[in-house]
Every structure is written in C-alpha cells, then in structure tokens.
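Hmm, how's this folded?
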Amino acid sequence: MKKQIRAFIDQLKIKSIQFIITASFTLVTLLVMLFVGVMLYSKFSETSEENAILNTQQMIEQVHYNLEDYLASMTGLFELVDDKIHQSKQFPDGNLTKQLEMILETREDIVSMAVFSKYGELLAVVPQADMRRNTRLTEQSWFQSARRDPYDISFSLPHIENLFKGPYTWVVSMSRGTTIAQGGEKADAVLLVDVNFKKLDNLFQRVSLGKKGYVYIIDLAGNIVYHPQQPMIYAGLKNENRSIALQNSYGSYVDESTGERRLITIKTVEHIGWKIVGVSYMDEIATTKQEISGFMFWLLVFVIVTVLFLLTYISARISRPIKMLEKSMEKVERGDFTVNLSIKGSHEVEQLSRRFNVMVKRVRELMDQVILEQEQKRKNELEVLQAQINPHFLYNTLNSVVRMVGIGKNEEVITMITSLSRLFRISLSRGKNIISVQEELEHVRHYLIIQKMRYKNQFEYAIDAQEEVLRCKTLKLILQPIVENAIYHGIEKMADPGMIWIKVEKIDDNLLFQIRDNGLGMPEHVRANILTGQYKSEDGSGVGTRNVHERIQLFFGTEYGLEIESELENGTNVKIWLPVLKDEE
C-alpha cells in the first residue's frame, strides 16, 4: 500500500506544472542548442578547412614569390657575368678576372664561376682552384643542357660540388652556352655558376605548414630539387605522392595514398618548370575541429545547467501560487470553507484566485441558505403537522359530533368520526413525505366530508382525476390547506351555496392539480403577493398556501409550485404543478 501511495505521489510530481515547465523548456533548449551546436560545428569545421587551405595556398604563393624573386636575382647575376665575358676582347683576361672576383665578393651565395670550352676544358675559374680528377665533366647534366640548348639558362638538381678541390658544398648549378674571344676569333664555351644550396634551404626553412607540414620542390621530371628532409633527395619520391604533383600545375588536392589525409598544394615556377609542393596534414585541421567540438560541448553543458537552474527557479515562482491554490482546494475538500486566498502572481493566477474566493464565498452562502431552507422546511412541516391537529379544527369537529349525537344523527356521527380518523391516518402516513395521488385525494375528500357536515351542506364539491395519475406520487398535504382557504375565505361568507372543484391531470411530464371555487375571490394585490410572503393579513390567512408553495419548491425546484388566478365575486382557481413521479423519492 505504501509503495502504491509513493508511486502515486511520484506520478503527481511528474505531472506537476513545475516539472512540465522545467522539462519542456529544458528539452526545447536542449534541442535548439543541439541544432545550433551542430550547425555552428559544421560551419566552423568547414570554415577551418577552408581557412587551412587558404593559408596553405597563401604560404605556397609566398614561397613561389620568394623563389621567383631569388631566381630572377640569380638569373640577373648570370646575365651580368655573361655580359662581362662577351665584352672581354681576349679570354682569359686579367681585368675580367678582377671583375668576376668583385662580383663573387658581393654575393655570399655564389660558390664559384667557371668557363669551359665545348670540349670540357677549363678556361677560367673564380675563385682560383684546381680541378679534381675523373669529374666526367662533359657527362654532367648541366654541361649537356648548355650544349643542347645554348640560349637558355638551365638549373641542375642540388648536388655536391665535385669539380674543384676544396670543401664539399651542396650547390645548384646554373649553366648556359656562351662565346669567348680567343686569338681574335669567337669560340663556343659553357658558362657555369654554382649557387650555394644553403640559400635555398634557408628560404624554405622559414615556411611552416602546421607542426608536421612542409614544402618541397620537384622539377618537370619529378626529381626532387628541394626537400626539408635532405635524405629524401637521394630517396626520391618514395614517401611522396608523385602523381598528384606531376599531373597538376597548381591547386589544392586531398591525398590519402599514404594512409593519412594530407592536403597537397601545388604551384609551378613557370620559366624553369619547378613545382613547389606544400604538404599539410588534415589531422591537424581535425585537431582544430576537436577543439571546436570540445568548446561547443562544454558550452552546451554550461547553457543547459544555467537554463535548468533558471527554469527551475522560474517554474517554482510560477507554480507556487498554483500549489497554494491546490492546498486551499484540499482544505475546502476537507470541509474548511473559511479559506481566503491572497495570492500575488501572474494576471491569470490572480484572476483564478479571485474566482476561487468568490466560489468559496458563494458555497458558504449556499450552505447557509441550505441550512436556512432546511430549517424553514422543518418549520413548514411542523406548521403543517400542527395544522393537521389544529385544536380549533378538532374542537369544532368534535363539537359537531356532540350536537349530532344529541339530536340522534348517529349515521352522520359515524361518518364524521370515520372521516376524521382516516384524515389523521393519511396525515401521519408513517412519517413519509411522499404519498400517492390517490391517497392525497382521499385525504382531502375526508376533509371535505367533515367540513360539509359542519357547514350543513353550505357547499358541494367534485373530485375528478385521470386513472393514470392516481398511481403517481405527490408531496402529501398540499390540497387540504388550499381547500381550507377556499372554505374559510371564499365560501363561508357567501349567501348562496358554494362549489369546490378538484381536478388532477397529466400534462406532458407534469402533474397539474386544480382547486377551483366559486367564492368571493381576492383582490389583485392579495393574489400577487400571497405566495411571496409580502402580504400579511391580521388573521394570518394565506400562510398555509405560501407554505405549500415553498414546500413544493424545496422538494422539486423553483420551476414547480402554485399559480393563483382570482377575481372578486368570481371565485379563485389555484393550480399546483408537480413533476410526474412513479416511485417514492
């Protein structure tokens, strides 16, 4: 039993307005925050990837610009040296050598400058150095490129400088065909300028594409020109996606061939064909996504907790007056009608509280009215009961009996006493308030017999009732007070014999009793006020009629009761309306 009560209480709490408000708004807030969070996460993720791609492209553009600028500078230097050689009337020339040495001193990135005949013979070198043996100079790529295309400057792959004795330096060789003056004639030669690779290495080392990203350079054949991991120059492109870099001249592409998602950004240096390739790792971009998702998660948690706290407080403020109203209603259910709410809250709650107070006040009034009506009902019943045993009526009746005995009217005496006994028997009715129509008519008939004998046949009477209404039920003793008024106030003072008609019939779902007499009638002001109690006569007439009317309305409602039609010298007709009752109520 306790578990059931507890479950019921828990169910009530779940269905409480505070819980519904808190749960509903929390759910709505959660859904909105989730929707906004997903949208923002998707947008931020997309934007972070776009920004990463844009930043990488900008970095590669900057590298491309710096490389082109540097190569343009080196190309200008190469052209300057070539011009000096062309201007020399005799090669080699001491003056030319001095000029080349001055150029070498101004450029730290120049390792050496040399001129070779078309057969590979060293004609001049700055700075002065001895050649190594077995260099196979004519088989080297830079020499063959200069001989094959003597009008374009060629750039070799990074390699160790192996022509002249001295330290082994990583260089990139620039070469092109040229002409020199020897013995008054022009001869074909090859100009070689070795550039220190460290300069290029420093240029690219400053480029950062995340913690793991890097930049490398390849030529048109796919050979590595530069790679931040120098061994890659020897290893080739084993760990790089050669196809993407070779198939595209520019743009950004996602590569998953190595098992990791990488962003490959390509930019081509047009006049030499080198391709700058930037490699960014998508997991670093995903790290940004994770940071965003973490931030969104904790933001969502904070908002939900805050909203839950605020909604709990607000819902408590909203529901508190309603809970107070509920407690007040419980007091009313327990019978405490002294409750008077004084609740401040929203307009609706204030109106509800005001209506509740009005309702409780009205209930109190109705209860007081019911108590008064019940008291009045008991008083009326007492008056009716007293009327049943009215000493005056009983005295007059017995006095009439004594007179009749004195003159020897034994049969009339028997009739009167019999009617009197039956009159009282029906009046008592074993304490029942509801009797049959037949019994009620029997009661009034005995009353009329007694009164007719007392008044020495001063009036006649007729009782007419439909057969079907005799079995219907009615409130007892509603006809006798009306008939009594008809005799005392309508017929008694008449010079001519009077007549009383009693008729009972069924009209729709109602019973209609009519008590009509041909007596003196009553004035209009008496007729209009006798049922309301506003008319009060000195002899107390009309009290019985009003009591009958009030008893009927107390039992059956205000739509039932008496109607009085009367005209002076033309008699009175009293209509009594009752509902059709088949069973005792």
